[in-house]
Amino acid sequence: DISPLLKDPVAFRTLIDLLEDHVRASFPKIDFIVGECLDSRGFLLGTPLAQRLGVGFVPVRKKGKLPGATESISYSLEYGKAELEIQSDAVEPGQKVVIVDDLLATGGTMCAACELLKRLKAEVLECLVVIELKGLKGSEKLNSTPFHSLLQYD
C-alpha cells in the first residue's frame, strides 16, 4: 500500500527522486513513461516521473476507459480475467518506453502491458515498480524484459 507515501509530500518527492535517478542512470534516451494501471496507481507515479524526465506519459487502462482507437489484450488475474487497452497511436514503432507501477505481484498486468507495447512495436526498456512481492514470482513472467523494483518483500 503506497497510500502513506502519497500522503506525505516529502516521502512522495523522495520516491519520485529515486525513480528519476534510476531511470536517468539506466537509460540516457527514453521517449515515454507508461503508466500501467488497473487501479490508477501507475498514473500517480508515472505522470510526475515523466514530467521530471521531460518526456511524455502514456496510459494503459482498463478496457473502455480510453478514447479513440485502441489495442486491447485479455489476461488472467489470480481472481479472474481482465482486459487492458492502450491507444493505437500512443507510441510510434521503435520508441523507447519504461513501464511504471506501484506493485508487482503475480505479474499478469505487467505482462499484458508489455505485450500491448510490443504490438505497437515500442521498445520496452524496463518494467519499474516501487514494491515487488518476490514470493509470487511475477518478475519471472516478464521473460527477457528488464525489471527493477525499489523494495522487495518475500
UniProtKB/TrEMBL annotation:
<keyword id="KW-0597">Phosphoprotein</keyword>
<keyword id="KW-0808">Transferase</keyword>
<dbReference type="Pfam" id="PF00156">
    <property type="entry name" value="Pribosyltran"/>
</dbReference>
<dbReference type="InterPro" id="IPR050054">
    <property type="entry name" value="UPRTase/APRTase"/>
</dbReference>
<dbReference type="InterPro" id="IPR000836">
    <property type="entry name" value="PRTase_dom"/>
</dbReference>
<dbReference type="GO" id="GO:0003999">
    <property type="term" value="F:adenine phosphoribosyltransferase activity"/>
</dbReference>
<dbReference type="GO" id="GO:0016208">
    <property type="term" value="F:AMP binding"/>
</dbReference>
<keyword id="KW-0328">Glycosyltransferase</keyword>
<protein>
    <recommendedName>
        <fullName>Adenine phosphoribosyltransferase</fullName>
        <ecNumber>2.4.2.7</ecNumber>
    </recommendedName>
</protein>
<keyword id="KW-0007">Acetylation</keyword>
<comment type="subunit">
    <text>Homodimer.</text>
</comment>
<keyword id="KW-0963">Cytoplasm</keyword>
<dbReference type="GO" id="GO:0002055">
    <property type="term" value="F:adenine binding"/>
</dbReference>
<dbReference type="GO" id="GO:0006166">
    <property type="term" value="P:purine ribonucleoside salvage"/>
</dbReference>
<dbReference type="InterPro" id="IPR029057">
    <property type="entry name" value="PRTase-like"/>
</dbReference>
<comment type="function">
    <text>Catalyzes a salvage reaction resulting in the formation of AMP, that is energically less costly than de novo synthesis.</text>
</comment>
<dbReference type="GO" id="GO:0006168">
    <property type="term" value="P:adenine salvage"/>
</dbReference>
<keyword id="KW-0660">Purine salvage</keyword>
<dbReference type="GO" id="GO:0005737">
    <property type="term" value="C:cytoplasm"/>
</dbReference>
<dbReference type="GO" id="GO:0044209">
    <property type="term" value="P:AMP salvage"/>
</dbReference>
<feature type="domain" description="Phosphoribosyltransferase">
    <location>
        <begin position="8"/>
        <end position="132"/>
    </location>
</feature>
<comment type="pathway">
    <text>Purine metabolism; AMP biosynthesis via salvage pathway; AMP from adenine: step 1/1.</text>
</comment>
<comment type="similarity">
    <text>Belongs to the purine/pyrimidine phosphoribosyltransferase family.</text>
</comment>
